[in-house]
Amino acid sequence: MVIQGYGYYEENNTYVIHIREFYVDEYNEPVSPPTFLNLYFRELEEGWRIIEFDFDV
User: Its domain of life (predicted)?
Assistant: First the structure.
């Protein structure tokens, strides 16, 4: 997996990290196309928390 990018949404004070995931078999051959995991963070009273996540193919 690699960090593909990140951003900040000022309107709701949220940060997003875009992670590209690669899945391979025991021979290091791809078993599916890369997928994207998006994690959304916000600072709450308890500290930084993931408030939402989604996947994209």
Answer: Bacteria
